[in-house]
Amino acid sequence: MKGKSDSLEKIREIISAHENIVLCGHTNPDGDAIGASLSLASSLEKMGKNVKVLLEPYGKKYDVIPNSRLIAEKDTIKEAELFIALDCGDMGRLQGVADIFRSSKCTMNIDHHASNSFFGEYNYVEENASSTSEVVFKLLQGHFPMDGEIAAGLYAGLIYDTGGFRHTSTTPFTMQVAGELMSYGIAYTKIYNALFDSRTFSEMKIMGKAFHKAERYFDGKVICTSITMEDIEECKGTNKELDAIINYLKGVDEVKIACFLYEKNEMDVKASFRGNDGYDVCALAQKFGGGGHVKAAGCTIEAPIEQAKKMVFAEIEKML
Ligand SMILES: [Mn+2]
User: Fold this and answer.
1) What is the distance in A from the centroid of ligand 1 to the CA of 32?
2) Which of 95, 153, 183, 188 could form a disulfide with 39 if both were Cys (CB 3.0 to 4.6 A apart)?
3) Sign for the pseudo-dihedral over CA of 58, 245, 188, 292
4) Are residues 218 and 133 in the same domain?
């Protein structure tokens, strides 16, 4: 169901009226989820609020994003006066913290996913924004505190979600925001290198495995590869080291739809999709209860990995 966003003024008013605030980013958090939640939390802390952030453990490269000291253990929080979900398209993206969200007195949803289900009591969703970090910048700018660390976190989220200002979600406004953030003296080269050009040895080994296993289907229009729990174990890695793979698949000549599947456990497969012009992978992900953006989306499929792949291909065949 499609809802209507509250105004930014209303969102600021509700935030200002609360003292004990819990924030979260989506499950398996990425640069935008981490940057947006830690930066907003730090700004609210500077306003004298009692803030805690709930984020699942994340990859080492995101350590470049400041204010991780605000992350709290899930068990220490039962409910919040105000719970703000960031970069979450629907309740499912909250995963382990959905219970805390539900039992909180007031809830808010700040996001940029077109598929957002307006699950909060208050909602601010800007589907044309490059990132939730860009939305948080609008929220803060001229109203709530900003400093170099907050700016660095938002910049990280901005470049992460735009793939370094490459994706079509990048707008003139995105570039203006980036310019504003740079004026805080942030270490933008370091942030870029950490997010896009650094990896652990095990991540590199897993990437190698994924690329080796990649195959093309439907006359090369579709490319797919997968990583199993066994693959991860063989590379002495973790399932937090899989994010980069899909973007390389998408870049292969003639590919319209790229799929990456990984085995979370025997019965759960996480699928990521990327679509080139004219191929709506958000619609594809939604067939399996997932979502995201037109060109980048994902879902979880409850099936063994080989079966999940067949299910995905059956849907893709209808799209081509
Ligand atoms: Mn995002």
Assistant:
1) 5
2) 153
3) negative
4) no
**In this structure, is residue 274 part of a structural domain?**
yes
Q: What is the pLDDT of residues 121-151, one digit of tens each?
A: 999 999 999 999 999 999 999 999 999 999 9
pTM of structure: 0.81
Mean pLDDT of the chain: 96
| C-alpha 131 to ligand 1 mean position (Å) | 5
* List of the chain residues with pLDDT < 50: 1
Q: How far is the CA of 88 from the centre of ligand 1 (A)?
A: 8
198 C-alpha vs ligand 1 centroid, how far in Å?
Answer: 20
Q: If you measure from the C-alpha of residue 162 to the centroid of ligand 1, how many angstroms do you get, rounded to a whole number? A: 9
31 CA to centre of ligand 1 in angstroms: 8
Q: How far is CA 124 from CA 93, 232, 259, 260, 293, in A?
A: 16, 38, 30, 30, 17
Nearest to 50 by CA among 12, 80, 14: 80
- As for how many domains the chain has, the answer is 2
Q: Which domain does 283 fall in, by range? A: 201-319
